[in-house]
TrEMBL record:
GO terms for cellular component: cytoplasm. The lineage of its organism: Bacteria, Bacillati, Actinomycetota, Actinomycetes, Kitasatosporales. UreD, UreF and UreG form a complex that acts as a GTP-hydrolysis-dependent molecular chaperone, activating the urease apoprotein by helping to assemble the nickel containing metallocenter of UreC. The UreE protein probably delivers the nickel. HAMAP family: UreD. Required for maturation of urease via the functional incorporation of the urease nickel metallocenter. This is Urease accessory protein UreD. It is found in: Cytoplasm. InterPro entries: UreD (IPR002669). GO terms for molecular function: nickel cation binding. Belongs to the UreD family. Keywords: Chaperone, Cytoplasm, Nickel insertion. Its main location: cytoplasm.
Amino acid sequence: MTTALAPAGHGLLAAARVVAAADGRGGTALPVLDGGGPFALRRLRSAGHEARVCLVGAMSAPLGGDALALSADVGDGAALHFSTTAATIALPGRTGAPATYDVRIRVGDGAVLRWLPEPLISARGGELRMTTVVELAPTARLVFREEQILGRAGEPPGRLTARLTVRRDGRSLYDQELSYGPGVPGWDGGAVLGGHRAAGQLLVVDPAFAARPPEARALGPTAVVAPLAGPAVVVSAVARDGLELRTLLENGRSGVDFGIQHDTDIAVQQ
């Protein structure tokens, strides 16, 4: 993929692409695994039908002014597990311009995607605009986790705007935008974070939910399990730190019958 310096006054332009396809022998092949700049993609040992890809950060990114793009295409009948080795840290750059990070995902019919990266940390002075769009076929299944940590230990956060849009069979299933940090009205008030410094969600989409929708329930004062208007459920939480956040999300997942047996490709794991 292309990696280059943007025009003067801007940062790095970098992109990566993953393509997973059923191999015709009961497994999943990775015909495209390509990245440049901060994107170092590594093929891990497969687990049954599921191919596994891990993103290794090859350089500090995103910095202010950087424009990053990542795409994943999971073909019909394929199964992919995507992870990262470490947290992504949004840092200030030399220009003062915001960074952008654009993620585009497509999951075909009968395909399974588990998208489980480590958290995104918004460091002091940084500004990041992150957009994720997921397109699902009618029989696709998805486990998608995102976690945001606002500031490193002992520091205030930078400014972070993150939008997640999920469409199933061309129709909107989930669309949420969150903004935190300097200049965002009320972001640290009781109606949003209430003094917490970590926020996240775990979204699961499974056609089986159409017949057996999960029940809504609270997970204490700062987390909830909520079924969506479609075959999906979301676990949403705010927490004091990343460890507490991950615990809340996993507790929410393990406490709900997602209609998915552990011996299938989409068993939710950390």
